[in-house]
Amino acid sequence: MREAQPRSIYLKDYRVPDFLIDTTELHFALFEEKAIVRSKLALRRNPESDNQNAPLQLDGQDLLLRNVALDGRQLAANEYLLDPDSLTIANVPAQFIFECETEIKPQENTSLEGLYKSRTMFCTQCEAEGFRKITYFLDRPDVMSVYTVTVEAERARYPVLLSNGNLVIQREVGGERHAATWHDPFKKPCYLFALVAGDLAHIEDHFTTSSGREVALRIYVEPKDLDKCAHAMASLQHSMRWDEEVYGREYDLDIFNIVAVDDFNMGAMENKSLNIFNTSCVLAHPATTTDLGFQRVEGVVAHEYFHNWSGNRVTCRDWFQLSLKEGFTVFRDSEFSADMGSRTVKRVEDVSLLRTLQFAEDAGPMAHPVRPDAYMEISNFYTLTVYEKGSEVVRMLHELLGPELFRRGTDLYFERHDGQAVTCDDFVRAMEEVSGRDLTQFRRWYTQAGTPRVDVSGMYDANARTYTLTVRQSYPATPGQPRKEPMHIPLAMALLGDAGALRLQLANTETDYERADNTELVLDVTQAEQQFTFIDIPEPPVPSLLRGFSAPVKLYFPYSRDELMFLMRSDSDGFCRWDAGQQLAVAILSDMITAYQRGDEMRIDQRLPDAFRQLLNDESLDRAMVALMLTLPSENYLAEIYDIVDVAAIHTARQALRVQIANTLRAELWRTYRANRSSEPYQANAAQIAQRSLKNSCLAYLMLLEEADIVAACVEQFEAAHNMTDVMAALMALVNSRQEDAKARALEQFYQRWRDEPLVVNQWFQAQATCVLPGALETVQRLMQHPAFDIKNPNKVRALIGAFAAQNAVNFHREDGAGYRFLADQVIVLNRLNPQIAARQLAPLSKWQKYPIAVQQRMIEALRRIAAAPDLSRDVYEVVAKSLAQAGQPTQ
Question: 112 — alpha (psi -120 to 50), left (phi > 0) or beta?
């Protein structure tokens, strides 16, 4: 329920907890209509608190308190104060036992926070503040406790009873019920608590640690999904070995469990020894899962496992430090995935996500630093800034220190803070101590919001044989931060000549650099403007800048189109080769967009099709990289780089360029498509994924021509393919074509075949929601009435409503504003059911300031409708209020 004036929480107001909880004993009695939770907490006053007379105030929401006791004595109603958010006892001793019994309704908990029912299974999600919906507790990450948990339920319905740690005992309780007691010897905050009860099957394997301990590995799923667990198990084993080899981190318990849950707000949760996963992040089978799905499972399994150290053994002191665990762990899982597949492809995929979505977040009303200063609802700060930009901050530390010193820094961090709740400063301090470097300025990456703009220019002096780079950094204003100080930006670069990379010798100019004698250098950009002069440069070079995307910045250099073509052909850095192609495409598309807006003919610069022809004809190239380079900048990325977004112009120009490429390169695309067809049994390895990626990139272009032989090949691929990657590629091509009969048949065949597989049906929803042809909104509205759609299921909301609003700009931004009204209607409904999911659908509307005035007015009106809805949750209120504040609009 919305407060009259929702309260912001500020980092500057942090105080240590007044009490600590040494041990926590919980007993859950699960029934079909309710759950009874008994808790026994050993509390003591925190010696570090400055208020040794503080009352005991425990967090609690949506709880029915049945009784409460202190040191074995039941308290009368006048001895404590109860309100909707807390339980307060005014007078408590220095050390005592607190006991209470609460009643909750998991079956009615559509927020999917705390303890809830997912289909026939009880499960929990306690991060960030869900534990307070289970029992009264100090629900904050800096209160760590040792847990013993007993789960009791009907044996027939719930034969599997799981919690954190090691299984202590199993026993019968009466005739039809049974119980299991679990003990976790490691202190943890309550957000890492987990419980599962259900009728589940599992696969089991093992892992032998570097010290020789045997760890049992189990993945629990519904029985029908047992054949979809092998990839997740292999990914887990690979993750465990990688973490030992790269970070020296060994798993610390004798069992590691994963449970797949269909109704889940997030991707997965790293609860100590009992990871709870969204089914979409653990189930994988060639017939039902695309290559992207296989890669996602591998990455998410690794991410949650790596949290065992970067998040569990060392956790965050408060929620402002969320990136301490998430940014660091995203960096770790990204490096793992790069080692498992193609490092360049992984880097390009990560950068594409960052530049398309995180940069947009940085420019919007919810812009915040990697370590936020304030929040109303912490669930709104599980953002790309905290995760992806936070990962880039860690990557920059890795770049600045080098692999060896970075590893020494992480060793020091883990050893010093094991079993503690700490801050981002503690992490950076460990890096300072092992390297001897002063990282004071670097810390601004944690405290300043927004994406830095880096403008670079170059000047060659033929007489002096020098080349000088001038680097300027600047920052846009963001909410609450109108002015910014210069950042410490590691700028990886090289200079390319006709024969390849030139040897670099950096003159001592404004910064005292040691002379370098190699072909690549990382420049420490620390001032608003700096110059770097290279000596003994024999020819005018082409600079290769931001190699490997060494910093999360918007970099601008006045490349000519011929220079971009040169970089596409010659740069040894895979990211820079790809980025040169993207810059060339953006330049061409910008001309076409301008022509469209003026009513002129859109002329195609043939340099891009010529570059693509060279890529297609060079069989020595990595096919995955060719597929990436053939992909034009997305409409969302193009929208990000424009101050005012003309949706129709962007869509029309991009489609026209795609059609022209298809026409010009038809022979090459058709040859490449046929050459990469394969009847080999499916494997989710790098070589096969690359082959399918290139083949399907060619098919997507060819289908724009809608020629009979191409359509026939697409239909044949759809009907004959034995893997979901090829099936979905063909279906997407058909859905976005004007082959109405073939499209209708394919959609019906797909649904009838996979109607009993929820994750596959979600792909069916998404394919239709993202169709760029007119009428997509009406299709989405019709599909919301489909028996397979359930608005209470987050995966289905994301697949249909979220995909339409976030990935189908040309239809969402219809001139009549119907897309905005539709999204507002759904957010109002979701606000009552699941505030977290409701708030996350609002991003497209929050970017209203990027559009023309008439469009802005329609988007603001949709936001005002949401603001006027009764009982607005804090989650939704915060996003709407900040969005309207930019328009000078009151929320009420």
Answer: left
CATH architecture of 9-199: Sandwich (2.60)
152 closest CA partner among 197, 112, 214 = 197
Q: Which two tokens stand for residue 21?
A: 């909880």
> 196-235, pLDDT tens digit by residue?
999 999 999 999 999 999 999 999 999 999 999 999 999 9
* Residue whose C-alpha is closest to residue 568's, from 520, 615, 633: 615
Name residue, tokens 């890795």. Answer: 398
* Cα separations in angstroms, 642 against 408, 647, 649, 890: 43, 11, 12, 28
The C-alpha atoms of residue 88 and residue 386 are separated, in whole angstroms, by 33
Closest by Cα among 18, 22, 97, 40 to 419 = 22
Active site residue 304: yes
Is 453-486+488-557 in the same CATH topology as 314-447?
Answer: no
d(CA 230, CA 216): 15
Report the Cα 86 to chain-centroid distance in Å.
32
Q: What pLDDT was estimated at residue 5? A: 64
Going by the DSSP 8-state scheme, the letter that residue 250 receives in this structure is P
Identity of the amino acid at 524:
D
Q: What angle do CA 686, 689, 693 make, to 5 degrees?
A: 135
Query: Is residue 509's pLDDT more than 80?
Result: no
Do residues 390 and 329 lie in contact, with contact meaning Cβ atoms separated by under 8 Å?
A: no
* Residues with Cβ within 8 Å of residue 224, at least 6 apart in sequence: none
Class for domain 314-447, per CATH?
mainly alpha
The amino acid at 77: A
pLDDT in tens, 760-807: 999 999 999 999 999 999 999 999 999 999 999 999 999 999 999 999
Q: In this structure, are residues 279 and 301 in contact, taking their beta carbons and an 8 Å threshold? A: no
Tell me the residue type at 327.
G
User: Sorting pLDDT into bands at 50, 70 and 90, what band is 888?
Assistant: confident
Residue identified by tokens 């100090």 is 138
**SS3 (DSSP) at 98:** strand
> Considering the chain, what percentage of its residues have pLDDT values greater than 70?
98
Model confidence over 659-692: pLDDT tens digits? Answer: 999 999 999 999 999 999 999 999 999 999 999 9
- Are the C-beta atoms of 437 and 397 separated by less than 8 Å? no
| Of 746, 809, 739, residue with least CA distance to 772 | 809
**Catalytic residue, candidates 25, 152, 222, 304:** 304
Element at 230 (helix H, strand E): helix 230-247
Query: How many Å from the N-terminal Cα to the C-terminal Cα in the chain?
Result: 15
Positive or negative, the CA dihedral 533, 535, 537, 538 is positive
pLDDT in tens, 37-49: 999 999 999 999 9
- For 775, the token pair is 């009428």
- Give the helix ranges, DSSP H, for 722-834: 724-735, 740-754, 758-769, 776-783, 794-797, 803-807, 809-812, 818-833
Residue 673 sits at φ, ψ, to 5 deg, of: -55, -50
Specify the pairing of strand 374-375 against strand 529-535: unpaired
Rounded to whole angstroms, the Cα distance separating 587 from 641 reads 12
Angle at 560 between CA 554 and CA 562, to 5 degrees: 125
CA neighbor of 111 nearest in space, from 853, 833, 859: 833
For residue 422, the surrounding DSSP H or E stretch is strand 420-422
Say how far residue 810 (Cα) sits from the centre of its chain: 24
Instruction: Let me know: does 839 contact 379? Beta carbons within 8 Å.
Output: yes
In terms of pLDDT, which residue wins out, 509 or 859?
859
Identify which of 370, 395, 373, 394 has the alpha carbon closest to the alpha carbon of residue 382.
Answer: 370
CATH number, span 453-486+488-557: 2.60.40.1840
The mean pLDDT value for 279-288 works out to: 98
**529-535 and 214-221 beta bridge pairing:** unpaired
Quote the mean pLDDT of the chain.
96
What are the residue boundaries of the structural domains of the chain, listed by start?
Answer: 9-199, 314-447, 453-486+488-557
